Amino acid sequence: MFVAGRDYAVGLALCAIGIGVLDLAEAQTVENADIFVAASELADEVELIRETMGRPYDESPRLPVSGITELELYFQSRTLLIKSNRLANELVGTAIESLPEPPDRDVVPADTLELVSRALADIRRVRTELGIREEIQRMDRDMPISATGVFSVILDANRQLNLLLKDTVSAEDVYLRLSTAVQYAAGLVAAHGGDDTLPTLRFETGRRPAHVYQRLLECIDILADIGAKSGVEIMSLSTRRNVPDDIAPGHVIDLVQFIVADLMLIARRQGVEPAGLDLGPFPKHVFPSNSYQRAGVLKIELERLAAAL
Q: What's phi and psi for 290, nearest 5 deg?
């Protein structure tokens, strides 16, 4: 059931003209409840599209997260826009849009609402193309909601979109985001006087997304220690659980987005830029083993950073 909030019109305005031209006071009227409104409608629309396409329902295990930050929510919403835009491209022919870069200031709900509103517009184009006539019921909602509550809705929609797309999240997508994480980690290590030479790890064949996922859970454990030592509040993720064998790149990139967001947040608080190191040529063919290798480099960099703090 879709639930509409008191400031839904603000969301439509953001979608139409973007936060950049809004008065700051107007942008500050946007709350996480407004993001929840747009994300809930999008999730309901995606469900109608799923039924029409005859695709399976996503039953992958939920991430046991708490304390989601606004920046982490922003990055998950960025992924939502990527996938919604890809679906509109595949089914409607909508052009692939360029993504906005995260703002140079602290992320506010209005920034995230802009992304979710753009994603919703793409999903509505798909709905029209498929001739779906069933309407989404809207109800007023005045209660506040945390970033974690909004995150859960967006994460579920992201995972369902994985099952609707022909061009799903790929090993290349994961590898690129891991490279960004490595640059941020290396920049922080250098800023704290650590070894500025990236480690060299051997390439291990036969690795699957589940192996990458497990290694990233280990990175998140180290990152929690880094956040505590740095005095920066980041999300909490219970990592002590078995990793299913059917983990897909779409699940892996969820963890990578967490790591990128948290490293960016810590770097910004400390006035540190990404390292800009030469990470070598991009592989002609990217497999989970490539991502596993790069995640190993990231883990070592995070261990170096934790030791330097």
A: -65, -45
User: Do 265 and 93 form a contact (C-beta atoms < 8 A)?
Assistant: no
- The letter for the amino acid at 255 is L
CA neighbor of 232 nearest in space, from 283, 273, 277, 268: 268
- Say if CB 170 and CB 250 are below 8 A apart: no
Reported confidence tier of residue 104, pLDDT bands at 50, 70, 90: confident
SS (H, E, C) 267-307: HHHHCCCCCCCCCCCCCCCCCHHHHHHHHHHHHHHHHHHHH
Q: Where are the domains of the chain?
A: 4-162, 171-308
Which pTM was predicted? 0.81
Which ranges constitute the DSSP H helices of the chain?
8-17, 24-27, 32-53, 70-91, 109-129, 147-162, 171-191, 209-230, 249-270, 288-308
pLDDT score of 26: 56
Residue 286: pLDDT band with limits 50, 70, 90: very high
Question: Tokens 């983990």 identify what position?
Answer: 247
